[in-house]
Amino acid sequence: MTTTAAHATSASERSSVIRVSLIRGLLALLWAAAFAAASDPLNAVAIALLVIYPLIDAVSCAVDYLATPNPSERRVTAFNGILSTTIAIALGIAGTAGGVPAVLTVFGAWATLSGAAQLVVGIHRRGPVLGKQWPTLISGGLSALVGAVYIAQAAGDSPTLDVLSVYATGGGIFFLVQAALLLWKARTRRASGE
Prior knowledge:
- By secondary structure, the protein is mainly α.
- Helix content is 86%, strand content 0%.
- Helix 3 (71-125) crosses helix 4.
- Mean pLDDT is 87; it is low at 1-9.
């Protein structure tokens, strides 16, 4: 691949990651606000929102998969997309048949696994094109830890779904910060003529 073609691929990948991060961040914040208003009691609206949230992740993974040239990164992204689709179904079942503890357990398992996948993607993306990926790495690590906490809370006396809005808000902020850092890096590179 020539230097010009490699630069075009890098710019295209960066642009795609910025778009996905920005849209994903905004949707997470909108979802958090909607779920905070609808999560108590656990009714049909709350269950529909629970199903929608991992589907946002699944669609983001599909878009990311198509824009990513790195084969190992694509495998992790595909895994995360399939996981999120499966979790959407599991959350619908848990919300309908199992109630709050079941939902919190399923969501916690998803947060742990998808956080680990996000860490792997962040590690693969570190470099001159996509930066150090600190927001992605921190978000992935926190997601993995928080998921384990949710699973423990589900077994407690009074589990609550309020924490899921906080989780989505944090994730949304990290995605927006990642998009902002990548935009800044792209503008800096253009200004310096790279």
